[in-house]
Amino acid sequence: MNTEGVTQKPPVRLGAVRSAMAILRLLANTDQPLGVNAIARELSLAPSSCFKILKALLADDFVEIDTKTKSYSLGAGAISVARRALDPSQAFATIRSRLEETAQAHGIAIGLWRLLPNSRMVLIGFAEGSNRMRIHMSIGQRLPIYVGAIGRAIAAHLNLSAEKLKEAFDKLQWQTPLSFSEYAAQVKQAKRVGFGLDQGYFAKGVDTVAVTIVDRTGVVRYGLSGIMFDGQHDQATMEKIAREMIGLGQWAAVRLVNPARI
Fold first, then answer.
1. Are residues 136 and 203 in the same domain?
2. Cβ contacts of 176-179, under 8 Å, gap ≥ 24
């Protein structure tokens, strides 16, 4: 093939790509901005190569520089990419207003979780009520899919065998220990009532009611957790919240994974 006169793009150097990724990871896990020499030393890079990579990242807003200290931190470009990766379908934005209304009505927090392929789930959105004391969770937090109230709801939906459920249970950590027989009974109850319940096991002093969001093929795609302080609501109110969470999950499924057919 004659390539005369055709401008060839320079090949991508994988070493530079890996170094750029390492720099971004380092800045993401460092509380203070870092200078070129500190970054190069930490990652065993040549300072000149490190500077060139930082310059390229700066041009695309993946890092930003403090011109006075000549130190670097993550830029808005990295944040926007991370947000998109966290919630690629913009699920939280789609149902956020309804979650906020429900959270406000009951003085609770509601989390939207997205299931990942590696038997984990990630928190992609969080709506809070207006209580003076609030429960806060970090967006991006990842957990095993069988832990907490959502874990019980997911396990109930999947109809896991006792052996598979025990295998998953043995890998979980709880602030208040419980036996496998207790956990299995709670999964069975979740299947019967349509929601998972965790009362202080995953986090002491915190009660959670959770439901799954399932697509038409029966695959769990998301989960919703209603989070409140232990003793915040009486039994009748807890049951009311649970019923609303079931309806909220069904409403969300239509908008997120089961759009109405025209």
1. yes
2. 176/200, 176/201, 176/204
Contact between 225 and 111 under an 8 Å Cβ cutoff? The reply is yes
Token output for 143: 């957990």
pLDDT above 90: percentage of residues in the chain: 76
Number of domains in the chain: 2
- Strand arrangement, sheet containing 63-66: 34-35, 71-74, 63-66
Q: Hey, what are 74's tokens?
A: 């993550």
Nearest residue to 193 (alpha-carbon basis) of 136, 247, 243? 243
pLDDT one-digit tens code per residue, 95-130: 999 999 999 999 999 999 999 988 999 999 999 877
Range of the domain at 25: 14-81
Query: What pLDDT is stored for residue 163 in this prediction?
Result: 96
Helices (H), 60-208: 76-86, 91-106, 148-158, 162-169, 180-193
- pLDDT, tens digit (0-9, with 9 covering 90-100), for 41-70: 999 999 999 999 999 999 999 999 999 999
Angle at CA of residue 108, ends 130 and 115, nearest 5°: 125
pTM, two decimals, is 0.75
Classified as helix, coil or strand, 75 is coil
Amino acid identity at 223: G
Residue ending a domain, among 63, 81, 99, is: 81
d(CA 4, CA 19): 33
CA distances (Å), origin 241, targets 6, 19, 48, 88, 223: 66, 49, 59, 29, 15
Q: Do 137 and 215 belong to one domain?
A: yes
With CA atoms as reference, report the closest residue to 128 among 147, 144, 145, 105.
105
